[in-house]
Amino acid sequence: MTITAEPSAEDLRRRLTDHLVAEGVLHNPAWKHAFVTAPREEFVPAFSLRTADGVRAYQTGEPEYLETVYRDVSLITQRDASGTATSSSSQPRVMAAMLEALPDADGTRVLEIGTGAGYNAALLCERYGDEQVVSLDIDPGLTAAARQRLHSAGYTPTLITGDGTGAHTPLAPYGALIATCGLPRIPAAWLDQLAPGGTIVANLGYGLAVLRLDEHGAAQGHFLPEMASFMTARTTSESVPSEQHDVTTLMRAVGTVTSAHVPWDVTGPMPRFLGAMLHPSATDLTLTDENGTTVHAITDAASGARARLSHRGEDARIDQGGPRALWDERLALLRDWSRAGQPGVERYGLTVQGCTHTLWLDTPDGLSWTLP
């Protein structure tokens, strides 16, 4: 009888690294070394993962635990009392894409917003050195656990418990800032913490923005080809209750009724990206009514506006109520996207000057939109 040995953690790290290279998201030898070296299993002793059969929990020592740790998937590492996920170890593919966008310079001082499990901080330590890495999280339980696990794995970055959307000037300036949480907009305080020419890599909606601070104090750059959506940044350690919606209310007409030609799948990647950039505080839901009509509902908590787009084929009825015409705003941006040949996310860029965010296509001097 032949007994096949289980692959070791070292073997699985090499396999994951090879996969990320083959996927085209990992190129730099320094980051390859980091992924081959940093032990992800040290930071996720217990986690859950959504499978075809539902959510499955894993713990150290269980069958398939180690193999699952080194799959290219996001691992949920903390949930609140209601079962809502509040922390995770991000998908390695997305982590690699974001890390590769950071400065390729030894000794770069980096501020990470969103320590989470601590694995990304370990990768940063491997690349830049422990003394150059500062990692921050709003949740004291997460920073305490991450500190213990990082030290156990041989890493000693500076860990801070605090609100990542604010300023942390005692340790500034930073050559780079990377946010592993979702944000509606780039906080103005971040620009003050960057050294001249410093880099921000952050998730806005479904986009991953790579911005560099110019001589005028503005942060500007393109979005990566990869799309992702992280857990929203919290400004307190308490989890934010999930927004609940009454389906009956969403399916009802809400105000002014118009019609429109909508030749795109409004739930596709680019419409979702553009919609989230335009309406960062909105919630999108897609439903089907009793007649088989697809209804796309938008509710914007910030303004109190609601809108429904219902259609069969390319003809749509739009119902809108509140202070903003949400679907009118979104369709105008989608028409610009369509007239430009439906470009991908990597052709879009962003300029941040103080609190003003300007989305643009191809170049800052080209077609642009000031975001509300």
Automatic annotation (TrEMBL):
EC nos: 2.1.1.77
Cellular localisation: Cytoplasm
Any one GO molecular-function label of the UniProt entry: methyltransferase activity
First-tier enzyme category under EC: transferase
Keywords: Cytoplasm, Methyltransferase, S-adenosyl-L-methionine, Transferase
UniProt keyword rRNA-binding, yes or no: no
InterPro entries with a match to the protein in the record: PCMT, SAM-dependent_MTases_sf
Keyword Lipoprotein assigned: no
Recorded superkingdom: Bacteria
Alphabetized Pfam families for the sequence: PCMT
GO biological process: methylation
Family: Belongs to the methyltransferase superfamily. L-isoaspartyl/D-aspartyl protein methyltransferase family.
Record-given protein name: Protein-L-isoaspartate O-methyltransferase
